[in-house]
């Protein structure tokens, strides 16, 4: 068994915790209730993924974005070769990788997903969108799996990826306007737009008419089906992780309902789940877990 964390390592994890607390209040609300070591491991994984995301979001042009990603990839190469960069995130991630069987290939998949954003092409169909989503979000599900589950079988890995894809689809449906205005990206597949008679001009103008609503609900149905199918997985996870994971799933799913409540305005509004609703979701999931335990 590994020894306790040193004061320096404790501070490294606190820095990782501050990152998830700032950038993803929903994830933090869910996973901060995990046992201490598991929660810290989640924070370290999140901090790495945030660094990959920031590598392109905080860069001014394509060349700078690729340079940042190349630097991160070089640091990852060194890290996995035993030459860990001496920064809080890498120190915390090293401790996490020592404690859990983290799939290192998923760290590279995360970077590859960011590279796909740098050289962005609007997905032609749902399959292309899911391929992208597997890199940027399915990889996160795979990275968290050994922390939250004692049975990282092939089936568990596939379903963890699917949950990540559901959350990425939710991000896309929440951020249609922001993605277009700030990054010039439209993640909605061209075939989905054509099928419902929704033009790119409608996206550019931020018109939530019936054609757009039909497009939006088409992708929302894909996400909700993935959320629903994952609920059958929960019994395979650590007892202490079941409630945090269901809370994360359901709070994210609730974002879709927030967009609906706001008449599908994902162009000008930042649709978020209130703390009151998060607390209600927590109680609902506690009742669900109690029910399946007694079945």
From TrEMBL:
Q: What class of enzyme is it?
A: transferase
Q: State the InterPro entries in the record.
A: Isoprenoid_synthase_dom_sf (IPR008949), Squ/phyt_synthse (IPR002060), Squalene/phytoene_synthase_CS (IPR019845), Trans_IPPS_bact-type (IPR044843), Trans_IPPS_HH (IPR033904)
Metabolic or biological pathway: Carotenoid biosynthesis; staphyloxanthin biosynthesis; staphyloxanthin from farnesyl diphosphate: step 1/5
Identify the keywords attached in UniProt to this record, alphabetized: Carotenoid biosynthesis, Transferase
Give its E.C. classification number: 2.5.1.96
Q: Name one Pfam family in it.
A: SQS_PSY
Domain of life the protein comes from: Bacteria
Transferase listed as a keyword:
yes
Q: Would you tell me the protein name for this molecule?
A: 4,4'-diapophytoene synthase
Organism, as annotated: Salinicoccus sesuvii
